[in-house]
Design goal:
This protein is of the alpha+beta class and 498 residues long. It is built from 15 helices and 21 strands.
Amino acid sequence: MPDKQVIVIGAGVGGLVTAIQLAARGLQVRVLERAEAPGGKMREVAVGPHRIDAGPTVFTMRWIFEDIFEAAGARLDEHLELEPLSIIARHAWSEQERLDLHADHERSIEAIGDFAGAAEARGYRAFCEQARTIYTTLDPTFIRASRPSLMGLMGRCGLSGLGNLRGVRPYDSLWDMLGTYFKDERLRQLFGRYSTYCGSSPFMAPATLMLIAHVEQEGVWSVVGGMHRVAQVLAQLAEGLGATIEYGRDVTGIIARHGGVRGVSLADGEQIAADSVVVNADPAALTGGRLGAEVRRAIPPLTPERRSLSALTWCLSAETEGFPLARHNVFFGRDYASEFKDIFGQGRLPRDGTVYVCAQDRGTDGNGTLNGPERLFLLLNAPPRGDRHDFDAVEIEQCEQRVFSRLEHCGLRVRRDPERMVMTTPVEFEQRFPATGGALYGQATHGWKASFSRPASRTRIPGLYLAGGSTHPGAGIPMAAMSGRLAAEALLADRRST
């Protein structure tokens, strides 16, 4: 029956995985996407003849995608070509201060010892052991749980499981906890950066985010053809299972009457009936009224003060010299605290911000050299004020000068041409992802309770579900995919119960 179909709003990773899971079980699924291509934040930007990944650039937790493909009767390696990186990332503080983290754990220990001394190498070994313990404890009990709560976590872990977390003081920040392993401030910067993977400050994020170190040690891959290839393959898999994906379809409202969802309305005036709707958009679009007054209170309100980081990004084709770029590179300033005080405290662009550079034509071993221009993606953390503060041209230009000066301080010279460069600001991210202010990770994970307050799959309205990196279990491609699985499981369980 037509009204028994499921509507998925958004063809980001979470929405596509939801569609795959439901279509594989025989449900009629219709995905409506406002953009002209799948992927959401996993997008490409055209710079002249080049296509540059302009969103997530790291592929981890491969096994999550292997499970998704297997459940759909397919194999991941038959659809995606993945190349393991031998160098996870290259880090620099100046021309003389460089440190690589390797896929080979012992090589990383040796590199840290050479960089900062034997005591720091021992601290890194202990840090990694604790990161592994945190991950193995929280993976089945929190990440894969449909609705996170402290009591639920305690119930699933048991006393013995919670004992595995005894080395992590629950009220400590990631930054403070890193100080128990590292005396070298540069190493605290390096591993404190894990908090920015979920759009947060290391000075306010919980120490449990140490688990990201273990995730990286389990493998980091490069996707042949670019990260956007992941979205394309997921869309093809969903369609192969019978789901339909319609692009250029702008959903402006969710119809909810008589105690449940009844369908959606589109910008062109069309209404589509459905008894289940999955929203693969930032939950702020719900609470902000962007999808109609009828569903505004489907989840507790989300305030702008809780937003995660936004960004200034540059996609460019340029020649480089000096610094030996790997695939993933991070260039640090000296005053790490000032970066987050500027962003979260003052709501301004950082004066001494960390710059991430993805050199998308570099080999997986980090030792390649290129003749001629190469594709680069640069990212600088920024305040999520795209709906309140249109950064003026002078402010943006001064920030850009600081970014490329930071790179030159570390030995990287980029011969950039404004005609071969595309910038995206928080204002433009707000336009792409309404009601977020340009925040790219949903709510910031600040304080030990934050992980339990992230919106879950189910809402207060029967038949209305959430998926995406702004929902539980969190930001990042693997977690967005997991959110899609959780949304599908919740929807199927509710159908069985009725």
